[in-house]
Design brief:
- Helices cover 60% and strands 0% of the residues.
- With 218 residues, it is mostly helical.
- The two termini are 28 Å apart.
Length: 218
């Protein structure tokens, strides 16, 4: 496990690599962000953005989503994985926003996770990106990078990773660090082909060092 100084070095280095890291899901308001993040489960942001380009033109409000047959909404998001389940959750989510929240996306995480299709990661993205509340959303990239670098333990659950990062990263850096870790994992420390040979953090990364030794042995 990395110590405090080493973690600080990792965060600063990743920050230098991706100073402008941000949410790459296109949206213009909190409601669109909730829909986009819900659609992004097990799917790339690139594909979600292709779908929401037309989706957000057709559906502007929660009422719009529940005014069409479920089959029509399914067809509109058909290119996205798990589209049937996601369409069902979007309609349930929209109805709940109308009936319980006055059509306004709540800014409280505990209230957000009560919405159908909204898990802890989605809620953290929404409160952070839409409302500026410090939060760390642990997706596959954040989890992978945190464990490879030794900030967290390999056996840690997603929730344990989140709690560990919250204790080791200053609160005012939670949101920006979350985006930078995503960018680092998405574009550099990739799942299948991490760029270990050019990584400025290789000397601290035991996982990367193991990979390099395996390459050299071939």
């Amino acid at each position: 496990m990395l110590n405090k100084a080493q973690i600080r070095y990792c965060l600063d280095t990743i920050g230098e690599m991706y100073p402008d890291a941000h949410c790459e899901l296109n949206h213009s308001n909190p409601f669109e962000l909730v829909i986009a993040v819900a659609l992004s489960a097990q799917c790339t942001d690139v594909l979600v953005n292709k779908v929401t380009k037309d989706l957000f033109q057709k559906y502007k409000t929660p009422e719009d989503y529940i005014s069409v047959p479920i089959e029509e909404l399914e067809n509109d998001i058909r290119s996205i994985g798990l589209f049937r389940n996601k369409a069902k959750n979007i309609q349930k989510l929209s109805r709940m926003l109308i009936e319980e929240y006055g059509k306004v996306v709540p800014r409280d995480r505990d209230e957000l996770v009560n919405l159908p299709g909204v898990g802890r990661k989605t809620a953290n993205v929404v409160v952070s990106v839409a409302y500026g509340v410090p939060a760390i959303a642990v997706d596959t990239h954040v989890e992978r990078v945190s464990k490879r670098l030794g900030i967290c333990r390999w056996k840690d659950s997603v929730l344990e990773v989140e709690k560990t990062l919250m204790t080791k990263i200053p609160k005012d850096e939670w949101s920006v660090s979350h985006h930078r870790l995503i960018f680092f994992g998405r574009y550099h420390c990739k799942a299948q082909s991490p760029k270990c040979e050019t990584c400025p953090l290789l000397e601290l990364c035991r996982e990367g060092q193991k990979r390099m030794k395996r390459k050299e042995a071939k």
